[in-house]
Amino acid sequence: MLKTIVIGVIGADVHAVGNKIIEYTLVNSGYNVVNIGVLSSQEDFINAAIETDADLIMVSSLYGHGEIDCRGMREKCIESGIEDILLYVGGNIVVGKQDFDEVKERFNEMGFNRVYPPGTSIDEALEDIKEDLGE
User: Would you name the residues annotated as active-site residues?
Assistant: First the structure.
């Protein structure tokens, strides 16, 4: 059975091209991808994950407000009964230039399993997905 990954762009961000590239790569790597598109709320991601019994949620953000948009997402997953779902986030997820180690630590504390800096190739994340999903 194919593993299911919910992807999308959170908040008021509309970077659709990168989102499509992620979808293309994951589909061609053998995953069932549920792409909820751009301008998505935390609830959109969580509802899609529940409806499709997803294994992983991958959040993208390029407009610098990812930290604000992602606050409380793990708690909402717990409240929704999907406390064990893997949460990934990547892109330009904070405002301005900040030390990425500190950014990563904050997102890990927010409950994200994997955090990727700007410019990360989806191929790099693909290796982590395989490892985390036990493939």
Answer: 13, 15
